[in-house]
Amino acid sequence: MSDSMQAIEIATPGGPEALVPTTRPVPVPGPGHILIAIDHAGVNRPDALQRAGAYDPPPGASDLPGLEAAGTVAAIGPGVSRWAVGDAVCALLPGGGYAEYAVTPADHALPIPKGLSMAQAAALCETFFTVWTNVFDRAGLKAGERFLVHGGTSGIGTTAIQLARARGARVFATAGSEEKVATCRDLGAEALNYREADFVPWMQGEGGADVILDMVGGDYLPRNLKALAEDGRLVQIAFLQGPKVAVNFAPLMVRRLTITGSTLRPQSDLAKARIAARLRAEVWPLLDAGTIAPVMDQTFPLAEAAAAHARMEAGDHIGKITLKVR
Predict the structure, then answer these.
(1) Domain range for residue 220?
(2) Chain centroid to CA 229: how far?
(3) Are residues 100 and 187 in the same domain?
(4) What is the rounded CA–CA span in Å between residue 276 and residue 283?
(5) Looking at residues 68-79, what average pLDDT do you find?
(6) Last residue within a domain, chosen from 261, 282, 300
(7) Claim to verify: residue 104 and residue 222 sit in the same structural domain
(8) Which secondary structure element, helix H or strand E, spans residue 301, and what is its range?
(9) Dihedral sign, Cα of residue 51, residue 56, residue 58, residue 62
(10) Would you call 80 helix, strand, or coil by DSSP?
(11) Same-domain check for residues 118 and 239
């Protein structure tokens, strides 16, 4: 193994053109960590936020973008017993995925599900960790409840639809084109084109949503509250239209509503390890059986990471975008 590796760094905060090739030293795994020889890396909106200077890496993490990847274990740090060199893994990363090698806590890695390619495996962790912790842990979605996800054809959306359906919820989704609406329906959701109709009366006509997963923010916040059923829970995971809006909170008390949310990256290593353990027990069997699978959009060479970001930010993609590293 060489002492240096090819990577993509953020030259200066800005648009996709800020992503440029570089050469970096291969990182060394510390206690409890593994080094992964990356085959494919996932591309996610937090990567774009970091590129724009709006989402700093946590202390001690690589400054390179990339929060998930799949590959093989190249080295193990002291105290690691659950993985061996050569094991095929997919993993949640603290950063550094846009490179030939990256380190991550050993407990944040999972085996590659049966039948999935490296590209598919690289598209799992960021979205599955996020959906599980927000929809099931925080919002407590149960079988038989009504679940609405906005942006149904995003990586988060396609994952949320499948997981909610697999666990017995009735699933609704919004999307911005007829092609995207059709994709949501193919995944098992009842879907609405938000450019042509308002989701609030649609959901109210169905009795309201017990849980809403939203990444839009802005004027969606008061509209989401109207679309919730009594005792409904709104989970906020991003603010594509901004985090500030005027809201009448009186219905929150009268209708016993809950607003919650989280970001994944700043959580402790222990918290992420616990999510990984739940996924391995509850979700990986569904992936192994082919009951659910990542929806894939397009794969770009690592050197074309800027093009991958441009596609993601254009909003035309359906499912996950990945980078081929090897």
Answers:
(1) 128-261
(2) 26
(3) no
(4) 10
(5) 98
(6) 261
(7) no
(8) strand 296-301
(9) positive
(10) coil
(11) no
How many angstroms separate the Cα of 29 from the Cα of each of 25, 104, 112? Answer: 13, 8, 21
pTM for this entry: 0.95
Pick the closest to residue 92 from 280, 255, 244 (CA basis).
Answer: 280
Q: Are residues 92 and 132 in the same domain?
A: no
Instruction: Output DSSP code: residue 44.
Output: -
- Give percent of the chain above pLDDT 70: 100
Mean pLDDT within 139-144: 98
End-to-end CA distance of the chain: 14
**Closest-CA residue to 71 (of 114, 121, 1, 24):** 121
Q: How many domains does the chain have?
A: 2
Of 244, 294, 271, 260, residue with least CA distance to 117 = 294
Bridge partners (DSSP) of residue 6 are: 23
Last-in-domain residue among 207, 238, 261: 261
Q: Is 122 exposed, middle or buried (0-12, 13-18, 19+ CB in 10 A)?
A: buried
Q: Which amino acid is at 176?
A: G
User: Which tens digit of pLDDT belongs to each residue from 203-249?
Assistant: 999 999 999 999 999 999 999 999 999 999 999 999 999 999 999 99
Q: How many CB atoms lie within 10 A of CB 193?
A: 16
